[in-house]
Amino acid sequence: MRVISGAAARLPPGLYQRLAHYRYQVFVEHLGWQLPAQGEAETDPFDGPEAVYVVAEEPNGELSGCARLLPTSSPYLLSRNFPEVLNGAPAPCDSTIWELSRFCAVQLSSRKHTSLSDFPNSSAAMLMRAAMSCAADYGARRLVTVTALAMERLIRRLGIHSHRMGPPCVVNGEPIYGCWIEL
Amino acid sequence: MLPTGKSTVAEVIRIPQGAPSLGIVPSGDGYLRLTQVQLRTVPLVHLISGVDAEAADPISGSVGASKSSIAGYTEWASLTSPALSLGWDWLLEGRDSELRYLRVDEPRSNIMLLDIHHRDLGPMQTSVALALFVDELAWEQTVAEYVRRRYG
What we know:
A: 8-stranded mixed β-sheet; two-stranded antiparallel ribbon; 25% helix; B: alpha+beta; 4-stranded antiparallel β-sheet; two-stranded parallel sheet; globular
């Protein structure tokens, strides 16, 4: 697996379009999230010039993971769409605090399952570390993210210093929470 | 990582509007900072518990095998604004014909505990202290009843 990162305009030709299609396959088709899609491409208003992408690609060219990084000094998903996870605190707005969103590590051709105990050595773990490293390269000192409560345990398993913003909320039957990650 | 691009919160878990103030403002790093003495004055209520999906599934491909334990999570919070949040994993273990809920690993929270000089204990010591705090809570019966109602 190799990891490619950068703003959309700096990614290799065609990769951003492949990424949008991969996101559609994973989030809309595979996970069933109700997201706006443009044909078979999943993008949203936060996919602007500020967004930095981290993309995992297998040796055969298949995409197997992605993440999106946004500085909280620009509009971002958590502050706009999930303010309830903030536990009454103001939404971060700081160029050293970045948001991690649209994180997934799924190789659609195999849909290999990663158990909790295997997670620290998994592709998902590698991608998480790559996203953290990439964010740090862009000047981030902390990440915020809104994610499924189940992810909290996986993040902890990696030995990452993280903590929650407040109690979980339930969205579409699934507990989610706001998370701080120290870089 | 999350279900939709736009929140449609079912609010199964909700800290009520107009909840009394905790008297603590979240720090810039998101932590709620308080001493262990202060922590013990704040009542926590049960929000939700669940059985891990993996643990709830039968073991496939193992003839005659059965789970000897069930694992899950539980979430507790203060009914304050902002809310203290504590969650931990548990294991339901059968031993000597008795079922017992045991805490597994350290709790996850939004709390940074302070020492008597109001300095951070740090994440590691805070986790250890919160684990001891959880072990003093009478949580097992509440979780057992909730899990029985939810999955029974």
